[in-house]
Design goal:
Elements: H1 20-26, H2 36-67, H3 71-83, H4 86-99, H5 102-114, H6 116-119, H7 126-153, H8 160-188, H9 193-214, E1 217-221, H10 230-234, H11 240-254, H12 259-270, H13 279-302, H14 304-324, H15 329-357, H16 363-392, H17 395-420, E2 445-449
Antiparallel strand pairs: 1-2
Length: 451
């Protein structure tokens, strides 16, 4: 089935050319509403995040208490968890563009991650844990950019922030339920990490089933018949605004303390029992859930890079609160709230900012490029924090170092983005399709292949 899209969307064409079937099932972009494809992808992420966050919520305790890793070893494993998908994200984004089948690449990614939930039952050392984590993150790296490309292709450019906000809200709802399930299991069966991993596996299977049955298989054809190429994907760095996002996002990610380390710091300061540890992730996810859609809509109105940087300012406030106030429930609430605000203002907002700049046939590759830079920064962050914790003798000195560095980097990031924010979007050579809204009459075909 081939359709033409509304002229106010990424591709031109009369609004009456969008059939009801395409609007309902293939997720054709419409102003003022969230496409069905976005909702379907949101449910996939909902179940997948229930599964993954069940594991993430207990992984620091499992690795340190049961497997016996040192803080430095945990930092390396957490770094792999955050950043092993750096190169794989580029592969996933490129092949989603090249094959014009983002759903197919998503299936490969989600399927690869499912088996790792059960594999955690057999780990007993840093090396075996690292291998399982690497496979899981490889799956995540493959699926993330193609999934975001489906969301972007199904949404109007002027509503990208809202669409990604809705998706991230559904994603975060799962991220909030996951730790609650882990808490319930550990409360009923103390230290039964295996029960958590098995339950996580079956929830992930449900998410994969939703992807197969309900997410449309979109085939995108760019204006003028342009197709993705490795040279074109790597050439995205030549665009000043894309480069500015890379140079802004990667250093900020490298100066962001991973969630696991924040939770371990709170547990030590509050003397929280192991059974209550997963509730830290619930508090963070609750704030993220409440603010994901408002932050996305605000980004559409005032500028996405402004909201992105504001999120890091809120994160800095959370770190300062953790360092400068006495330990207590209020400290934990503010820190977790600021962490949730940070994710609401950065995760989906950054994806929307990248998608806005790119031509259709390179959108997956571009999203993957920026996400890889962020994942690489987080890998560096986790390893560096674990090293500082070991060398300086505790989490607090390491957190001080990160807080100071983040405070120094934020003005530089603001200066860089403010100087590039008004520059032309992605340079277009004569005869090549551009990323900006085309003139009336230009068309992009979106073919839906039933599965």
């Amino acid at each position: 089935m081939s359709t033409q899209n509304h002229p106010d969307l990424p591709s031109g064409g009369p609004p009456e050319a969008v059939t009801p079937e395409a609007a309902g099932s293939a997720g054709s972009p419409r102003v003022g509403r969230v496409a069905g494809a976005v909702i379907a992808a949101g449910f996939v992420s909902f179940f997948t995040d229930i599964s993954s966050e069940m594991v993430t919520a207990v992984l620091p305790l499992f690795l340190i208490l049961q497997v016996g890793l040192t803080p430095l070893q945990y930092g390396v494993v957490d770094g792999l968890y955050q950043g092993v998908s750096v190169a794989v994200r580029l592969v996933g984004g490129y092949f989603a563009d090249r094959w014009r089948r983002p759903k197919l690449v998503c299936l490969l990614g989600y399927g690869l991650s499912i088996g790792t939930k059960l594999a955690l039952l057999r780990v007993g050392s840093a090396s075996s844990t690292s291998l399982v984590v690497a496979v899981d993150r490889t799956g995540k790296g493959l699926r993330t950019a193609p999934r975001d490309a489906i969301i972007a292709a199904s949404s109007a450019r002027q509503g990208l922030g809202r669409a990604f906000g809705v998706h991230r809200a559904m994603d975060t709802a799962g991220a909030m339920i996951g730790p609650l399930l882990a808490f319930a299991i550990l409360a009923e069966i103390p230290n039964s990490f295996g029960s958590v991993f098995v339950t996580s596996f079956w929830v992930a299977v449900v998410g994969l089933a939703v992807l197969v049955l309900f997410v449309p298989d979109l085939r995108l054809r760019a204006t003028g018949g342009a197709v993705a190429s490795l040279r074109g994907a790597l050439g995205l760095v030549a665009d000043r605004r894309v480069l500015a996002l890379l140079l802004t996002a990667a250093p900020l990610a490298a100066l962001t303390v991973s969630d696991g380390f924040v939770y371990l710091t709170l547990q030590q300061r509050l003397s929280v029992t192991n059974e209550l540890f997963p509730l830290f992730a619930v508090g963070m996810s609750a704030a993220y859930l409440l603010l994901a859609v408002p932050a996305g809509r605000l980004a559409d109105r005032v500028g996405r890079w402004r909201v992105f940087l504001a999120g890091h300012v809120l994160l800095l406030v959370g770190y300062l609160c953790l360092l400068l106030t006495s330990a207590g429930l209020l400290t934990a609430a503010v820190c977790l709230g600021m962490l949730g605000c940070y994710y609401a203002c950065t995760d989906g907002v950054l994806a929307a900012a990248v998608a806005e700049l790119l031509p259709d046939h390179l959108r997956g590759s571009g999203i993957a490029l920026v996400q890889s830079a962020v994942a690489g920064g987080r890998l560096v962050s986790s390893v560096l924090f674990g090293l500082l914790w070991t060398v300086l003798g505790g989490q607090t000195p390491a957190l001080v170092c990160f807080t100071v560095a983040l405070a120094l980097d934020l003005p530089l990031a603001w200066l860089l983005m403010s100087r590039t924010g008004r520059r032309p979007v992605f340079p277009v050579r004569p005869g090549e399709p551009g990323p900006t809204r085309p003139a009336a009459g230009d068309e992009r075909e979106v073919d839906r292949v039933d599965t």
